[in-house]
Write a structure and sequence with these properties.
The protein has 236 residues and is α/β, with parallel strands linked by helices. 30% of the residues lie in helices and 16% in strands. The strands form four sheets. It has a five-stranded mixed β-sheet, covered by helices on one side. A two-stranded antiparallel sheet has the order 1-11. The longest helix is centred in the first third of the chain and has 14 residues.
Amino acid sequence: RFLAAVVERATSGGTLFNPVRLNEVADALLSSVRADKGFGTDEILDLARAMRGFSPSSSEFVSMPLAPKGRHVPGIGDTLVWDAYRAKALFTALREDHPLAAHKPAAGPAPLPVDVPPQQISVRVLNGTGTAGEAERVAKALRATGFTATAGTGTTDPAARTTIAYDPGWDRSAKSLATAVPHAYLVPRKGLGATLEVTVGKDTPAVAKVRAEDPAQAPKENKYGAVRGDEVTCPR
């Protein structure tokens, strides 16, 4: 639960894009858990940068399967022993990048398939409606379906229609985001980089749920006792 909370805090509110807040999260993590020698703040920051586009819903947590009986090691004491068969199956699943947690079909309309996983897409949301809170509303809905989305502060120029600005080098990501924000107008903008920019217009868009994975590939049962990060984090 603690690690899931760390992931939730690190991936929400733009923490991964804020060096000061990212350092605070790294320091909090190191003060709460024991890490391997040589794994310090710099290594955590490198890991966090690689996790941009990550979210609690795309993280999975599992306990190592243990044998019924431990082993006494002279000079050390009683130790735990892995269950060799189940441990091998677990590491095989990790190596082959198979999901561990059981797939639970969500109630309501099925998520729309997209080419690029939403967890790999970073989005900045601006408010062009003149109504306070619209950027955060859309950003929250995008985060709920897997995107790494943050709301920009203040307002931008008034916009009658919602737009998605994108660097032409990230056109596949833009099309995937457009699936989640139907009726948004795509605007190519060279030099924008990897972060897409949604300007919420007065058409007050609804956000559709999307997915990249094929549900048929997700496990029907939970053989490893794995849970997703969004299933164990405490509500705010």
